[in-house]
């Protein structure tokens, strides 16, 4: 776990081109994809004397073969930096589109030698996202496109065996607390704090809450700061420090300090939080949360985050990865998208194309080296969960966490049997 | 505890308003924790399949307009250092456990400061979960001399107070204030220096410090204004 989390910390300051990231991603996943392709198409590959072509440029016309590469989606509505640069300055910028997909998208397969366009009806049924490493079986037709017969991806990685736990032990997962200047859910937050610290309820309820062993906050603890242009105020150059309100951060600090006296807390950053925007998001700086950081039970962690509690492996993100993948497809079944990232063996394939990320040089930290037991994604619209079975008896509980500020729900996962349920906090005022 | 208080008040005739907290499983099979005013208690109970607990959450003279009144009462007053301050009082249904949350006596330096009591399922025992010993106060008196030496070094190590929370042999949760060495770099200002100074000399320098801070702020503002004036206003 420590090695996996260590990979997510950005240690070097310099920036470079992103081509390296794609190259190491291909290198890292190519062997796994080929192994899975061997298992899936083994009989076809041997009987027809179909060989795996090492370079896409070596594909010959009319010969059935199997090639491995990175998917690139050419989409009309995808934000393109060249369009931004060449467009007219006086036209107002168009609002960002919620979906990038359209009917006339083209799919290319690329590797270090070249690229080839993929055609075929089977592609329409697949979830097509830039950055996925996949193997395709097919042949080149006269137009120079590659007709696809079948597709294969890397598949689930190895999962360490789940430990046998006899007592009930719960982990609390929260996301989207969204503390802001005019905070409407302050009462719900206080109820949640009292519930977790055991101040609420009778002895039966307190026995239940005493079994909560840890709390993981999956991002968006602070509200998005919207700059409101005040017409009456004279515009000043530079930064107007009087418009900054430090109250939300100190409220968050007090809240965490109170919970930390009872529970170990892991704080992950999210899209709205005061950390770097590109993935992997680095932990909060300790100076921002001085009171909370004094507690030994408080941990500031990265987004995404690997965690092992009593042998059960948790892995989660604050939602940006799945939100970005959802822009590439029409359907909104987020559980299916989360399951698909496990099949692709990559958490965030759309980086760095549409999702900002750090240009790693030697390794891609988003490649999943092992299957977690619990995979949680924060800041989704509503709570949803399912259990996914992998081909080698892997078993994953996927949980979509709702935003606490909107729904007042937290999720409790039982380590004994991976059951999970929500607890909602509300009042009739 | 609060239910006893309510019973005693109703005898005198002035029944204050009570807000109840219901924990249970609703008819849609969802665990929920809900705050209801006393009037709506019965009808809300019908919506629940199983009720795990009902108890009084808070009491006030009149029905509060919205939830913010309940939140604000929980904020701990920080300036009042002279009195014993009981800020959170939560009732439980087992009447034999004494529940006082967050007691903070500060001027009594000779006694142990007990800061957080948490109720346990064992009704007869009192559980002390946080205690700070008075040795902390002594350390603070000695530390200004150390600090003055450290001010000469712009970068190096400084003593930081950290809270360590662990379970001791008897199963009690203990939180201990310890001092640890932490390295810091030049240019970082140490807010704890001013904080500790205020505690040692309570009245005089606290006023002085606040005046200084105000004075500094004014000075900053004037220089900032002049700099912005250079760029002009749009």
From TrEMBL, chain A:
Organism source for this protein?
A: Cetraspora pellucida
Q: What is the lineage of its organism?
A: Eukaryota, Fungi, Fungi incertae sedis, Mucoromycota, Glomeromycotina
Spell out the protein name for this chain: 13838_t:CDS:1
From TrEMBL, chain B:
Q: Please give the superkingdom of this protein's source.
A: Eukaryota
Q: Where is this region: Disordered?
A: 192-225
Indicate whether Nucleus appears among the record's keywords. Answer: yes
One cellular component term from this protein's GO annotations in UniProt? delta DNA polymerase complex
Print the keywords alphabetically.
DNA replication, Nucleus
Intracellular or extracellular location(s): Nucleus
Q: Which GO terms describe its molecular function?
A: DNA-directed DNA polymerase activity
Q: Which GO terms describe its biological process?
A: DNA strand elongation involved in DNA replication; DNA synthesis involved in UV-damage excision repair; nucleotide-excision repair, DNA gap filling
Identify the InterPro entries for this entry.
POLD3, POLD3_sf
Q: Does the keyword Membrane apply?
A: no
The main location is: nucleus
Q: What is this protein called?
A: DNA polymerase delta subunit 3
Q: Which organism is it from?
A: Cetraspora pellucida
């Amino acid at each position: 776990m420590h090695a996996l989390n260590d990979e997510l910390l950005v240690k070097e300051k310099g920036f470079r081109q992103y081509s390296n990231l794609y190259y190491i991603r291909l290198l890292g996943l190519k062997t796994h994809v080929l192994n899975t392709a061997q298992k899936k198409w083994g009989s076809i590959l041997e009987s027809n004397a179909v060989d795996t072509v090492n370079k896409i440029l070596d594909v010959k016309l009319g010969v059935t073969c199997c090639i491995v590469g990175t998917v690139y989606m050419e989409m009309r509505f995808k934000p393109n930096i060249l369009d931004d640069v060449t467009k007219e300055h006086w036209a107002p910028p168009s609002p960002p589109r919620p979906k990038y997909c359209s009917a006339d998208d083209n799919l290319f397969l690329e590797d270090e030698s070249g690229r080839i366009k993929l055609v075929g009806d089977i592609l329409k049924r697949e979830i097509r996202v830039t950055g996925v490493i996949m193997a395709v079986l097919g042949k080149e037709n006269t137009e120079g496109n590659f007709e696809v017969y079948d597709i294969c991806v890397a598949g689930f990685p190895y999962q360490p065996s789940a430990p046998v736990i006899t007592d009930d032990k719960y982990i609390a997962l929260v996301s989207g607390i969204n503390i802001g200047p005019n905070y409407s859910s302050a009462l719900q937050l206080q109820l949640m704090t009292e519930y977790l610290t055991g101040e609420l309820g009778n002895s039966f309820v307190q026995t239940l809450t005493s079994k909560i062993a840890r709390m993981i906050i999956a991002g968006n603890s602070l509200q998005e700061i919207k700059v409101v242009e005040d017409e009456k105020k004279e515009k000043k150059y530079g930064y107007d420090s009087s418009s900054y309100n430090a109250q939300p951060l100190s409220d968050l600090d007090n809240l965490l300090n109170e919970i930390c006296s009872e529970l170990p807390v892991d704080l992950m950053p999210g899209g709205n939080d005061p950390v770097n925007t590109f993935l992997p998001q680095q932990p909060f700086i300790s100076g921002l949360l001085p009171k909370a950081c004094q507690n030994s039970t408080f941990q500031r962690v990265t987004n995404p985050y690997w965690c092992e509690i009593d042998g059960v492996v948790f892995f989660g993100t604050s939602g940006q990865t799945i939100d970005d993948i959802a822009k590439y497809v029409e359907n909104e079944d987020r559980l299916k998208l989360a399951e698909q990232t496990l099949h692709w063996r990559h958490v965030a394939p759309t980086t760095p194309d549409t999702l900002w990320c750090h240009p790693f040089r030697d390794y891609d930290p988003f490649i999943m080296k092992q299957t977690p037991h619990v995979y949680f994604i924060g800041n989704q619209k509503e709570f949803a969960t399912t259990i996914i079975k992998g081909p080698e008896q892997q078993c994953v509980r996927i949980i979509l966490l709702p935003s606490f500020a909107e729904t007042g729900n937290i999720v409790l996962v039982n380590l004994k049997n991976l059951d999970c349920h929500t607890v909602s906090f509300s009042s009739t005022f | 505890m609060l239910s006893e208080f309510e019973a005693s008040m109703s005898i005198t005739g002035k029944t204050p308003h009570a807000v109840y907290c219901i924990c249970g499983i609703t008819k849609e099979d969802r665990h929920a924790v809900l705050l209801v005013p006393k009037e709506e208690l019965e009808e809300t109970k019908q919506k629940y399949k199983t009720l795990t607990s009902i108890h009084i959450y808070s009491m006030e003279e009149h029905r509060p307009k919205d939830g913010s009144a309940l939140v604000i009462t929980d904020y701990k007053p920080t300036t009042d250092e002279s009195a014993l301050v009981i800020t959170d009082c939560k009732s439980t249904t087992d009447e034999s456990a004494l529940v006082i949350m967050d007691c903070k006596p500060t001027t009594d330096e000779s006694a142990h400061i007990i800061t957080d009591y948490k109720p346990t399922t064992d009704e007869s025992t009192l559980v002390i979960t946080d205690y700070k010993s008075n040795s902390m106060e002594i350390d603070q008196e000695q530390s200004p001399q150390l600090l003055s030496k450290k001010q000469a070094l712009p970068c190096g190590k400084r003593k930081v107070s950290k809270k360590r929370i662990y379970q001791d042999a008897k199963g009690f949760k203990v939180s201990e204030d310890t001092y640890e060495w932490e390295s810091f770099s030049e240019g970082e200002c140490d807010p704890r220096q001013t904080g500790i100074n205020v505690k040692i000399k309570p009245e005089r320098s606290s006023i002085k410090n606040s005046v200084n801070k105000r004075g500094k702020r004014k000075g900053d503002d004037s220089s900032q204004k002049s700099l912005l004036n250079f760029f002009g206003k749009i």
